[in-house]
Amino acid sequence: MVVRNISNSMILGITLKGIRHPLLSVGTLMVFAVVYQYLGNIVVSGAVASGGLVCISYANAYYGLKYRLFNSKSSPDGSHKMYAHYNSGQRGRRYWVAEHDGVIIGGVGIQKQQKSTAGKSGERRTTVAELKRMAVEPEYRRMGVAKALLDTAIEFAKQQGYDVIILDTSEIQQEAMRFYLKCGFEEIGVTRCDTVFPLFSYNLHNFRLRLNKKAQVQVQLFLSTVER
Ligand SMILES: CC(C)(COP(=O)(O)OP(=O)(O)OC[C@H]1O[C@@H](n2cnc3c(N)ncnc32)[C@H](O)[C@@H]1OP(=O)(O)O)[C@@H](O)C(=O)NCCC(=O)NCCS
């Protein structure tokens, strides 16, 4: 559910981004010109060129999401496997699902930060958790499911001694950005990701939630040291 959900919510946006890409627009015009030269029919040539554009753009989005961003290693398919992956006994790592009538309708995970952002956001002296794979089934959105999952994850993170929760969300996931801002996260930066989609790079928005005062003091101390 979770992997499918997040992929689905991104595939349209990524496909549209591809359609607007200048390189593909030029390619489409060239295809149109060649087909028109052979067929002499403006409608058919336009249909062939724009059909090709949509197919290439969709293939780019599908490949990036399925084989790179949400591949079976980073996101074992299906919520139950994801649950097992995150709840494998490693300290500071957990995955929760929300259920309705025995059906999984949402999920979220917490793990210790995998890559260091030291120096980037002033968190090198804190214990940083990453929030992963937040998703709610479309028909259950705007009912507080994600907020309930997030509250559970925050409570767990505090118990585990984390000072900060960070997460990345893409430029395509506008509803997720609004959700995190509403829930007290602050945007701390934007990073460019060029390893997922063959045709183009995209922006990842970096968010942070400080969990206690101690972390805030440490961050401020670190920042003031840098300024001097
Ligand atoms: C982002 C997502 C998890 C939110 O789930 P949700 O269960 O609908 O969120 P909640 O109902 O708990 O929302 C809590 C608050 O966040 C804000 N919010 C949530 N979705 C929003 C949206 N689409 N637009 C504006 N604000 C939104 C609202 O303030 C909302 O409170 P309200 O409904 O009382 O106004 C869900 O839209 C989703 O699964 N999206 C696709 C997957 C995805 O992008 N995941 C993020 C990966 S980083």
UniProtKB/TrEMBL annotation:
Gene3D superfamilies: 3.40.630.30. One of its GO terms (molecular function) is N-acetyltransferase activity. Keywords: Membrane, Transferase, Transmembrane, Transmembrane helix. SUPFAM superfamilies: Acyl-CoA N-acyltransferases (Nat). The lineage of its organism: Eukaryota, Metazoa, Spiralia, Lophotrochozoa, Brachiopoda. It holds the Pfam family Acetyltransf_1. It comes from the Eukaryota. The gene is LOC112042394. This is Uncharacterized protein LOC112042394. It comes from Lingula anatina.
